[in-house]
Give the backbone structure.
Amino acid sequence: MNERYALGYGLAAVLLWSTVATAFKITLEYFTPIQMMVAASIVSAIALAAIAFWQGKLHLLGRTFMARPLYYLLLGLINPFAYYLVLFKAYDLLPASQAQPLNYSWAITLTLMAAVFLGQKIRKQDWAACGLGYLGVVVIATKGDVMALQFDNPAGVALALLSTLLWAMYWILNAKNQADPVLGVLLGFLLSLPFSVGLSLYSGTWQSVPWQGWAAVSYVGLFEMGVTFVLWLNALKLTHNTARISNLIFISPFISLLLLATIIGEEIHPSTLAGLVLIVCGLLIQQWKGKKTREAEPSC
C-alpha cells in the first residue's frame, strides 16, 4: 500500500513540475522577474506554513531557526532569493523550451560541485554523464550549431546555467541538515522575504495586475516552490525503491515541452529535443550500477 501511495505522490509531483515552465512564461507577462519572485515566495511561505501547521510542526519553527540562524539565513539568500531571481530572469530572456532543459542540467552540476566541496569521488560514468549533459547544453544553447558556438541570447544562457550552480550549492549546504525539511524550506522563504521585497521596491513600482496574473503567480508559488516539494518528500519517504520513484522525474521535461507547444504555442526546435535527450542520458548514466540517488527536489 505504501508503494502505491509513493508512486501516486511521485507522479503528482512530476506532473505538477511539468507545468511550471508554462506557468513561468504566462506569469512573466504580468510581473517583472523580481516582482514574480516576491509574490510567488509569499504564496509559497503561506502554503508551507499551512502544511507545517497541519503536520503539527509549526511550533518548532522558532526553535529550528535559533539552533542555526546564520545558516538558515544563508540558505534563504541562495534559495529562494538568488536562485529564483536568476531563474525567472533566464525565463524572461529565453524561450521556456530552452531555459527549462538548461536548468535541468543542475544534477550534473551537483556532481562536480560535490566532488569539490564534499570530497566525493567522481567515477568514470560520472565523467561520461557530465560530458553528455554539457554537450546537450551546448546543443540547446546554440540551436544545434555546435561548431559555431554562437548563442542567440548569451545572457539568458548564462543565467540558466548560473541557476544550476545556485541550486547545486543549495543542496550541498543542505546535505547535512538534520532539521525537518518542510521547516527548513519555510525558514528560507520567510528569511528571504525582506530582501526580496526591498529589492522589488528599490527596482521600481508595482503596476496594476489583473486577476489572471495573480492566479498565475499563485500557481507558481504553490506548485513550483511549495506543495509539490512536500509531495516529492512524501513519495521518497514512503517508497522502498528510491531509484524507481526518482526516475519518474525524467519524464517531466518532455511533458513540459509538450505543454509549452500546446498551451502557449512555443516552437520546439529539434536541437532542443536532441540536447534534452543528451542531458537525460547523462543523468541516467549517473544512476547506473547502484549510484545513490539524490533525494532532492529537481527544478523545471
Remarks:
- The first helix runs from residue 2 to 27.
- The CA atoms of residues 243 and 292 lie 8 Å apart.
